[in-house]
Design brief:
The strands form 2 sheets. The chain has a 7-stranded mixed sheet, with helices on both faces. A 5-stranded antiparallel sheet has the order 8-9-12-11-10, with helices on one face. The relative contact order is 0.14. The protein is built from 11 helices and 12 strands. The protein has 431 residues and is an alpha/beta fold. Helix 10 (340-352) crosses helix 11 (409-425).
């Protein structure tokens, strides 16, 4: 906190203690070298996105409304071409009618898989909300299991890598799709890197080139100069209120991949014979495109905030994942706080740092789709937007909190400051 004016504002206006600001200053100095490397990735992705916009001659007409069935919507067609170019795929679906990341992934799985097919997740357990989609828990809800799709799960190695030996043994003649969840979810591991995804694809295609390689790309967009589809993945899916929406998309999801797969998925999204030919954008094309344009910069700030969070809590002696110097493949920072009180205090600090609903005090609750009570802190302009500053955690041992987002680095940093202050005020940490 070398800027005296900012320092004084934080102490006088926000009640931040000198001890917390000193820890932040020390942490920021320690990670400044990493930030310049992230800026190079950000610049590359910014120009990659710009190139896709210019190639597809994005213009004012693409922001207009359409009505009814949405036939021949130029904005919808343009944004899907832009996404396909950014991900270097044949085609894409980018729609506000895809309600979240789980929906995008469900469409991908259910659009491709058929009775008798086998699905393998090779990064351990999928994110909690996908368990009912697959049929790991919950019955009679139209899950893959109910439709006759079998499931296997291959755990990661002890050091958090894809276990290719175990995967090779798990692959059977009925294996139709193998999926990598790039982000950690509520797990204690590093996100899966692009280099590891490339190695995984080569291995799977070497066993059987007909197996479809799918990646859950949530939280991973623009963390690298390459996306999974640049290294051989057949199809990726994600949410627009995470990285690629840049904080401006009001809702929506995307799926990008091979033309035949996108066509098949589109028939699940609407109906056979119609596919992607119908579907309104509800006037959202402008914000989706503008959010995508600024997404590389927004993601850059969020990753910097995650690294700062890791360093501050590491200096306090807490276990963090990923570690400060680890290669980042998602925007999530996990901190093992060791108690429900610590998790709740952290989340209260994040909520108090928000521009919206900062007066609200988050509490754990039985959230649909989750097995344990979950606490979520997110005072966001877009409800549930996790590219905006947020933190969440299942209330279960070993009591790990997951921090992510921030539309700017400064706001992500302020979230870390407020979380530390709340923990300090409640005497959970000492400084």
């Amino acid at each position: 906190m070398n800027n005296k004016n900012t320092h004084n504002l934080l102490t006088q206006k926000f009640g931040i203690s000198e001890e917390v600001l000193s820890l932040i200053e020390k942490s920021e100095e320690a990670v400044s070298g990493l930030f310049s490397e992230l800026d190079d990735v950000m610049a590359y992705n910014q120009y990659k996105v710009l190139d896709a916009f210019q190639k597809n001659t994005i213009r004012d007409m693409h922001f207009s409304w359409n009505t009814g069935y949405g036939y021949d919507d130029p904005g919808r067609d343009a944004i899907e071409r832009v996404y396909a170019d950014i991900f270097h795929t044949d085609a894409a679906l980018v729609r506000p009618i895809i309600v979240n990341g789980t929906h995008a992934l469900s469409l991908t799985l259910m659009g491709i898989l058929r009775p008798g097919d086998e699905l393998i997740y090779c990064t351990g357990a999928p994110y909690d909300t996908l368990e009912e989609v697959i049929g790991i828990r919950g019955e009679g809800k139209g899950s893959l299991k109910e439709y006759g799709v079998t499931y296997k799960q291959v755990e990661l190695t002890a050091d958090g890598r894809i276990d290719l030996d175990a995967l090779g043994k798990a692959i059977s003649p009925t294996t139709r799709m193998i999926t990598v969840q790039r982000a950690t979810g509520y797990g204690w591991r590093k996100a899966i890197s692009i280099e590891e995804i490339e190695e995984w694809v080569k291995f799977v295609k070497g066993v059987n080139p007909e197996i479809i390689c799918m990646t859950d790309n949530c939280y991973g967009e623009f963390l690298h100069t390459k996306e999974p589809t640049d290294v051989g993945v057949d199809v990726v899916a994600g949410s627009l209120i995470k990285n690629p929406g840049g904080g401006l998309a009001l809702t929506g999801g995307y799926i990008a991949g091979r033309q035949d797969l996108i066509d098949t998925i589109s028939y699940r999204m609407t109906s056979p014979g119609i596919g992607g030919e119908c579907g309104l954008m509800f006037g959202q094309t402008r914000t989706m495109l503008q959010g995508l344009f600024i997404a590389p910069k927004t993601v850059n700030g969020a990753v910097k905030g995650a690294i700062l969070c890791a360093k501050a809590f590491e200096l306090l002696g807490y276990d963090v994942c990923p570690h400060v110097n680890d290669i980042r493949s998602d925007i999530i920072q996990a901190v093992k706080l060791g108690s429900p009180e610590g998790v709740i205090a952290f989340c209260k600090g994040i909520q108090a740092a928000a521009p919206v609903d900062s007066h609200v005090s988050p509490e754990p609750w039985a959230m649909p789709g989750y097995d344990d009570p979950v606490i979520m802190a997110a005072g966001a302009f877009v409800q549930g937007s996790s590219i905006e500053l947020s933190a969440d955690a299942p209330i279960r041992e070993p009591y790990v909190v997951y921090f992510q987002g921030g539309l700017t680095y400064e706001h992500s940093k302020f979230g870390v400051i407020k979380a530390l202050q709340e923990l300090y005020d409640q005497k959970i940490i000492t400084l």
